């Protein structure tokens, strides 16, 4: 009993000491410094894949995850690229980050003591350089030619698997998605410090690294976003993107190429489909309202064939993006079984697997996590098709067909309404004519009696 009482007094004394030494203001200030959090287990279990990066770790929370290790060598390459382009020594970048290391560390909630010192500093520098290089790679002309931010030459190898055109097609979409994971954030203060060192001796007028970093991040995460970035430095990329969604600034008209329509929707807008003269995937054209597509035979081997072709294009730098672009284009065209039925009737799809639903499911599954190369011929076709559909006369026609001609009952209702309207007009015309022909509706005119 005595020992039990002693243990109770011990933990009570420890708790009292903790209360005595606690400073509520300092504790509250410490919590305010956090901006990058771990997702609670109860929330994570609902959607386990939504909070887990797929290709790259940014920051300490997922650093060292086994499935993300292949990207570590490219992070080190990014540091070399940045140093070569800026001709600045590594020591300057490290010193700039080291100045704000405590503030950077405080941004992460529940960061253990093993992340103090050089390990944390190394991750911040390498991950920050990697993110800057990826964002510049995705800029127009960013993988070659001159870098917009620094004015120095960029990476000359277009076939670089990460920092070249090949990386833009196959790596950027994954990095962009990983940047939106709440546990996978880098403080924008880090990027600002790296950019400030990079520009420290620039002859170009500096417009302010805070605004530039926000804009750089937003342009990378959402290239089609037209809203201006926040004026003040964001906390991290996810915070910048969130603020852009909440912006009250007017957005410009959506780019035509970003609107994707299915075959039936295109048909309702007046576009006609025709089988191309060849089976070449390059033989996709749009002229005078006619979209020509090559014949595709869908059988049990189609899925494996296209998956492996796309895998080769993804893995072999320099192989191109033609097959992947075609699959992406067809996924846009084929959305529902009705789209398959329409293209089958035009002899564009030869269905050897059975139901139209299975064909639609096949195309929708093939195009998962792929993107259309903005420089490809198919992107030009997509733009032309969407410009055609955006014309007022074609929009009106599509709305009319969609509203009144989608089912026999809608057609009958429209016919009945037209018939009733016609009968009402005829009755009105008949009444008016009878009125004038009958002399105001009387058989003979009224005559005053003659005087006697």
Automatic annotation (TrEMBL):
Transmembrane segments annotated in the record for this chain: 409-433
Q: Which UniProt keywords apply?
A: Membrane, Transmembrane, Transmembrane helix
Region called Disordered, residue ranges: 140-159
**What domain of life?**
Eukaryota
UniProt xrefs under InterPro entries? DUF247_pln
Name this protein carries in UniProt = Uncharacterized protein
Q: Look up and give the organism this protein is from.
A: Zizania palustris (Northern wild rice)
